[in-house]
Amino acid sequence: MAVPGQKPKPHIQAVREGTFRPDRNSEGARFAPEIPAEPDWSELLPGDSAEDVRDKAADVWARTIPALVVSAGLTDPQRETAIEYCVTVARLWQAERELSRTGLVVETERGNVKSPWVTIAHQYRSHFRSLVGELGLSPASATRITPPESGDDDGDIFD
């Protein structure tokens, strides 16, 4: 069940901002700053029909993940969320493409009905919105993320 109120800041962000209080904030999990490795898309999305989806997911990874590493401190243990984001974008793209080809209404033996791709696109779009908020990729959610400081810092918790 969802907890009302503002989402808590990640521990590292509260430390960077100087707002961490042990009585109010949870330290949570801490991960070593390791750059996520790109998955083998052909293993993750097998089959000849998934070639377009693999290409799109790889393109999304190349455009998004390096920026998240720098801007939000994305690490390798958080890689599955990043992979899920890339696959969701690729599947949403696939659904929209099929909707453009077949239309919103398809003819069946029972008459004209809503295309199943409409439902698929809606579900992926909903999942996409939650992942965008989680990763800080929308303009609103990006304001809640403080980028990691660059340079040598003796106060770094990973030193």
UniProtKB/TrEMBL annotation:
Pfam families: Terminase_4. It comes from the Bacteria. Residues 1-44, 140-159 are annotated as: Disordered. InterPro entries: Phage_term_ssu_P27. Residues 18-27 have a biased composition (Basic and acidic residues). Residues 150-159 have a biased composition (Acidic residues). This is P27 family phage terminase small subunit.
